[in-house]
Amino acid sequence: MTEKKSVWTEEEIEDIKKRIMEAMEQVIDPELGIDIVNLGLVYEVNVFNGGYCEMKITLTTMGCPLADVITEDILNAMKTIPEVTETDVKLVWYPAWDTSRMSRYARIALGIR
């Protein structure tokens, strides 16, 4: 795959999405010290031909003062995906986040059963 390609197959798009999620594992929630993927904060990733990516995320609490920090970290992590030329991070509140969205790893790390 090259970043100049404007039309991707479904398989290529799925590969790009997989690499995006791997990159999001490098984005750490500053308060909890766990990445946003394992916390279950990434709700949806859409990649469109031409390199546009729309990502829907949530936060553990409404009014989180670190929303801008996390968004900036996401945008920086997306720079490692050469096929993505533009990223739009949308903050959503539905469905509401709860601890059931966390991975087993995150639960163990935070001592949640």
From TrEMBL:
MIP18 family-like domain sequence ranges: 17-89
Listed InterPro entries: Fe-S_Maturation_MIP18, FSCA_dom_sf, MIP18-like
Signal peptide: none
Identification of the protein by name: Metal-sulfur cluster biosynthetic enzyme
Organism this protein belongs to: Alkalibacterium subtropicum
